[in-house]
Structures are given as C-alpha cells and as structure tokens.
Amino acid sequence: MVSSDPSIWIMAFFTIAITSLAFRDNPLAKIAEHAFLAAQAGHYVTMAWRNINKIGLEPLSKGSIIMLIPMLFGVALYTRYSKKYIWVSRYPTAMMVGIGTGVTVRGFVEFQFTQQIIDTFKPLNSFNNIFFVFAVVICLLYFVFSLTPQNPSIQKPLSYISTVGRYLMMFALGAAMANTLTQRVGQYAGRIMFLLYDWLGLG
Amino acid sequence: MDEKNTIWHKLQNIPREILYILLIISMIIPLLYPLGLPLPISAQTKSLYDSLNTLKEEDVILQFVDWGAGSISIHQPGCVAVTYQAISYGAKFVYLSTNTEGPLMYERMVTEDLQSIFDKYGYEYGEDYVFLGYVAGAETALAAIASNIRTAYSDDYYGTPIDDIPLMQNVRNYADYDMIVTYTMGSPESFVRQFNTQYGVVTHVHCGEMMTPNLLPFWASGQITGLLNGAFGAAELEVLIKRPGNAVKLTDVYSFSNILVFVFLAMGNIGFILTRKER
Fold it and tell me: pTM score > 0.90 for this model?
C-alpha cells in the first residue's frame, strides 16, 4: 500500500527528482540539488556551532580560561579575509598542519611502510604466495626507470617484464573500478528499496 | 548500409538514458522477486565474525558511525549485524562519530533496527550502550579518543556529562577498548594508524566497495582484523549470524546489475574491436 506519510512522499520526490539528472538536466533536479546543498550547509553549521559550544564556550563559562587560546586561534583563521592581517591566520594554520602531520606521521611509517614490507616476505609454499611475490617484484621493476641497458639482448626481456607489470597493475585497477561500480549500484539500490518498499509498499 | 551506421558502431554509442533505464529495471526486478542466489563467505568477513565470537561479557566495542546518507544501504546493515552478534555475548557499545552526518545516521539506525535488539536483550542506554555524538578533528580527534576519550568528549550526544554515565566509568583509553569497528566511506587508514598501529587495539573496518582493494593488504598483514566489503560484506555477515536483512536483499541486485553492465561492456568492446580497422 502506498505510504500516506508526507515525509515519505517528500523523500520520494527528491529521490526521483535527483535521479532524473541522470537522464537530462531539468528544473526538478536543480530543485533537489539545491535543497540538498542547503540542508547539508545548514546541518554543517548546526554541528559546528554545537561543537564550538560543547568544547569551547561551555568550559569557558565554567571558568576554564585556557579554552580562550584555541578559540582565539580559531577566530584568527578568519583574518585571511583581510589583506592587512592575513599574516595572523598563518599561525593557526601552521599549528593545525603541524599537529595534523605529527599525529599522522607517528603511525604512518609502521602502518604503511614497515608492516607492509614485512608482510611481502611470504613463504613460497602456495600458488597464491608465489604469485603475490612474483607480482610485487614485476610491478616494482616496472617503476625502475634508471636501468636502461644498452645491450639489446637485455633490453628485450626487460620490456617484457615491463609489459607484464603494466598488465598486472591494469588488473588491480580494473578490480578497483569494478568495485567502484558495485558500490554505486549498492548506494542507489538503497534508494530503489526505499521507493519500492517504504513509498509504494511493494515489499 | 552507411559505413558509420553499422550495428557495431551503434553498440558503442547506446544512449545513456537507455543504459540507465535498463540498470534501474535490473535493480527493481530482484528486489520485487528475490532469487536468493548463493552467497559465498569471504575470508575477510569470516575474520570479523570469528573476532566477534571471541567477545566476553562487559567487553567494550567502539563503533564509529561515520557513514553519511549516501551509504545508508551499505553501512547500516553492517553495523546492525555487528551489534546483533556482539550483543549476544554481552558486549557493551560506545557509538561515536567523526562525520557530521553521524548523529543523524545513528538515530535513524536506532529507530529502524537497534532499539528492538536492545529491548530484546534488555540493554539500557547509559548502562550498556551510549552515543557520544560527533567530534571534529578527524585523525587528531581519533588520536585523542585513543589516548584519553575525555579529551575529545565531555558529555554524550544528549548532554549527560561523561562521568555521570555508568558505562563510561571504566572506559577511558585504548586499554579499555576491546575492539573498534569503523563504518566509513572515507579513509579508514587513520583509524588503523591511531588504534591498531599505536596501541594494538583490534580494528575492524566496514568500508565501501571501492576502498576494499586498497585495504586488502592491511587485512592480509593483520593490521585490520576484519574487513567488510560494502553491502556484500554486510550481507555475508547477515548470513553468518543467521539474520538475513536488507544487505542480503541487495546481493541479488548486485548480481543482476553487474551482469547487465558486463554484457554492455562486452558489447561495447566487441564493437570497438570490430571497427578498429576503420580508424
């Protein structure tokens, strides 16, 4: 049975309106697009204010004077809109970049570098492991640009390795691309489910 | 026949409107008439399932509700399935978010799915689960949550001071988190860096399908313990916990639409190959 809930109808309208953009640009799609952006912006501002209130203003009102420092840094960011005082905004920016980099880097080397290298050294006791090590070596060789032997008898085999490396990377990129498509289908299928089950009551 | 108007040329230039309509039809049919195609369980999902089965009573799970409206169909079933399995072992839940849409997604999930599960197991808000809300700062916030959650949150989403929440009395830092699960379309690497690499906390990731190939090396190396591959992963978990839900319904949609896309890809490529000589 078709839903009698007005909010469901509004959601269904916006779902269909934004879907129509896939076929052709039209006023309904524009309305949906602008409504979405406006709602997003409103939500972001609300969440930001809530955050400032909870983390900054509330402790400040309870006597935590130290909260003035980060709040002043936050306000200083807006001086970038003044040509005269833009230099002030560089201090909070530098602080944010510095803290962000420090926090990220402390785990980065182990997480994305050493642990991954360690895991590459697999025992060659299964087809999967052998193929894995082979693919890693071949793909790495593809990126060895400094090795340009003059001897044609070496150049030819190297070019084969390079080709195999390129194909292996293409397989990986193809898998990533296929997964991207699958994800988009999954995301949109959620809206189709909503239209069929919640709006039209066909489920 | 015009040389540029052969069937092979047409195959390469099918109007997108037709493709979209066929794609939408291919999604509608399996949703109305489910086929129940078999669903093989991946090793990544099995790892998460096995890890959930090691939970003990009073263990604390941090669940990062970091998805947005665009991926409700992917992440909500995953989070519900994880909660359902973990709750049967008596685990406690701390829900939180580093995405501004997180609070909306959490409340929707509770209304639609979780409240009935909490009621069934007699779970009380504050005693057995809590929602701390959104915190800004991305990876910096994660570092703060890992080292001392009170530096990131002073109260829960509904304004109750964190020290007045019974569940949070013994939850302070990484040593108190038995596992974390992040549901995100963004960058789950930061969660692994801050929780697993730094402190060795068991870290599970439920990501969108497009992130999975990038994350598989981290699962293979054990840095990510369980990895749910989008709605497929959620569906696999629903099958494992014997509670099929919306994610399982989506798997037929995937199969149908992927076959359609594959057919069109093949047709376009055949057309391209057969007309290559003309170029």
Answer: no
